[in-house]
Design brief:
The chain has 128 residues and is an alpha/beta fold. Helix content is 16%, strand content 32%. It is built from 2 helices and 8 strands; from the N terminus they run E-H-E-E-E-E-H-E-E-E. A hairpin with a 5-residue loop joins strand 7 and strand 8.
C-alpha cells in the first residue's frame, strides 16, 4: 500500500534558527527553509524534515545516522568545526579518546561516534 510513497523522516528542535546554523555551518548540510520548518536534502534525494516545537524533548536514541568512508577523518573535521562527541558508560565496547566506539574490532557492529545538535537530538557518524 505505501511502498511507492516518497517517505521521509522528521524530528523536532527547540530552536529552528540554531538548528539551521548547526546543520549548515558545523555539518555542512544542504538546509532549506520551508513554511513548516527546515528540510535537509541529501545527495541521494532523501530528505529529513526538522520542525520547531516549543515543548521539544530530545529523544534518548539516535535520530539521524551519517554513514562515512573514514570515521577518523570525519570526527576530526567535525571537532574542528566545534562539534563535541558524547561519551557513554553503558556501551558493549569502549570508546577511544576521540569518542569512537570501535565496534568492528570487537565484532560488535560498526565503528560509531555520537554527538548532539543544539536541541539535544542524538546524531551519529558510523563506518561499517
Amino acid at each position: 500500500m505505501l511502498h511507492d510513497t516518497p517517505a521521509f523522516s522528521g524530528y523536532s528542535v527547540s530552536d529552528q534558527q540554531a538548528a539551521k546554523a548547526f546543520y549548515t555551518d558545523k555539518l555542512g548540510l544542504d538546509v532549506q527553509d520551508t513554511p513548516m520548518g527546515l528540510q535537509l536534502t541529501f545527495f541521494n534525494g532523501h530528505n529529513v524534515f526538522i520542525y520547531q516545537k516549543d515543548d521539544h524533548t530530545p529523544a534518548n536514541f539516535t535520530v539521524l545516522n551519517f554513514p562515512v568512508d573514514n570515521i577518523e577523518q570525519t570526527v576530526d573535521q567535525l571537532v574542528a568545526n566545534g562539534v563535541i562527541f558524547e561519551r557513554y558508560d553503558m556501551l558493549p565496547a569502549r570508546q577511544d579518546e576521540k569518542g569512537i566506539l570501535r565496534g568492528r574490532a570487537s565484532n560488535m557492529g560498526p565503528d560509531i561516534a555520537w554527538f548532539k545538535d543544539p536541541s539535544g537530538n542524538i546524531l551519529s557518524v558510523l563506518q561499517s
